[in-house]
């Protein structure tokens, strides 16, 4: 059975476009493909902590198999999130663009899962590259919504896009290199510009639901 891990990063609930699009996508995927288990992880409601001094000391501890109990405890949530990621075949992220980047809840998730020794290895003597990604064989889908327009490749605001472009980079760093992005623009403008963009995203997601 295929397992999809779905992250919801908008602080908005019913009014969130990214949340609604991904929920429809997940339902369509189950309807189209049958045997799919969906694991939902909320990251948008201020529920994930930032990494702490203890977290950092624990993650970079010289003897990871022999950490003192309080340091080990500081990694409990990180371990849970990393295990959840490894257990999934597919990763789906629903996120707004916030101030040209991602919302802080999703950044907290990234900081919890991009972890030395778990999702990547650091090999300082390797002449090719000191970094060895460990999260292999997975596909990711990013559904992102934006108030303005022109953030896509070649667009006038592409240089300001530190949201899905950043996510693609950081997922690639841990080994997830097969990443599809579906974006909706013009939320702040509304009207036809937004409706057209939203409908195009719905069509792209309906197509993807058949075999993602
Ligand atoms: C705090 C905040 C920052 C935002 N920053 C940007 C931005 O930098 N660029 C942009 O195009 N839209 C920006 N927006 C608009 C959102 O990206 C847009 O409304 C999006 O559709 C919200 O996603 P949601 O409907 O899933 O909550 C921002 C909105 C908020 C609330």
Draw up the topology in text.
Elements: E1 2-8, H1 17-33, E2 36-42, H2 53-59, H3 69-74, H4 76-87, E3 90-96, H5 104-113, E4 120-122, E5 131-133, E6 139-145, H6 164-174, E7 178-184, H7 191-208
Helix pairs in contact: 1-7
The structure holds flavin mononucleotide.
Family: Belongs to the azoreductase type 1 family.
EC number: 1.6.5.-, 1.7.1.17
Binding site for FMN: 10, 16-18, 97-100
Task: Please provide a written account of the structure.
By secondary structure, the protein is of the alpha/beta class. The protein has one domain: Flavodoxin domain (Rossmann fold). Helices cover 38% and strands 19% of the residues. It contains seven helices and seven strands. The protein has a five-stranded parallel beta sheet with strand order 2-1-3-6-7, with helices on both faces. Strand 6, helix 6 (164-174) and strand 7 (178-184) form a beta-alpha-beta unit. Helix 1 runs parallel beside helix 7 (191-208). Bound molecules: flavin mononucleotide. Residues 10, 12, 16-19, 96-100, 145-148, 187 line the site of flavin mononucleotide (FMN).
Structure at a glance:
It is built from seven helices and seven strands. With 212 residues, it is an alpha/beta fold.
